[in-house]
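Board work, copied verbatim: F-box domain-containing protein
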Amino acid sequence: MDLAAALHDDALAAVLGRLPARSLAASRRVCKAWRDLVDDRHGQLLLRLRILLPHAVCGIFVNYQDHGKPHFFARPAAATAAGPRIDGEFDFIDDQKRMWRWSRVLDHNNGLVLYTDDDLRNGSFFVCNPVTRRWKCLPRCPSGDEWRWHLHAFLVFHPAVSKHYRVLLVSRKPKKEVDGAEWPPSRWRCHEFSSRTGRWQEKVFVREGEAAGTIANLTMDYLPYSMEPRWRFSAYWQGNLYVHCHGEYVARMSLSDATYRVIKSPIDRTVCYSDVKSFLGRSEKGVYFVAIYKWQLRVWILDTGSSPYRAEWVLKHNRVLKPDDCYLSLIPVL
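↓ predict structure ↓
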């Protein structure tokens, strides 16, 4: 008699739930009944599996200012261990869906990549899994086309929470600049695409707390070390999207209740106008802010404690780089 088959689903789920992550993953291959139990048991076992399985950085995508396509860089050993070769140029996307020769990676999140051909003005958005080579061309955002150049796109995806992803188009500057006006506004109008519905819709984030400043005293132009706007970086952590805004501040956008809060940058606003290079990223312990100025590298982690209103940058690393390291540190990988 098959003892496992004789167990009630609740009892078997309790047994499988005690297994280490790799053993739980292996149990899905025993039989169809076990696979269905792990995948469909109210999502609890699959959620535990996705959280506990190890996550490793296999490589990095690099956009070039003088080359038409991004590339994927990885150590040969890491690329072999990771499984199938990752196509960093995204040649698996149907050419008939591409409108332009130039392309780049806009954002990435937990294994998915937001990719575009050309730019935000004319190109299409693609959400891709570079490992499985599955991709989806998103429909155009109808209400955002007339001011698309003033938007920046961010990808939100957490496989331990949902199999669905979202793409958020955030306005980085107002349509009409009025020097005395606050920025970001009290009601920040964005556009959101959901893979659950397959549609775009307008989403308004209501500000909690003070604005970062006025349009007159905030930086709205481009980084001196990049042709891209000062909004290139974001981090998704615990249901919130953290957006790097010119290096002057970070916007914490809550996707659950459509509110946002301005978090002061750990660097002085005046250095944002100099050659300081600042980045935002996420690691296993939370959200990090990195600043590189001349030969100095500093890394902060955001401490929110138990209160949603608390946000304090704690300096974790402060070191002087060697000259050769400084030129190789323009894009930290967190």
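Confidence is low (pLDDT under 50) at residues 227-231, 328-334.
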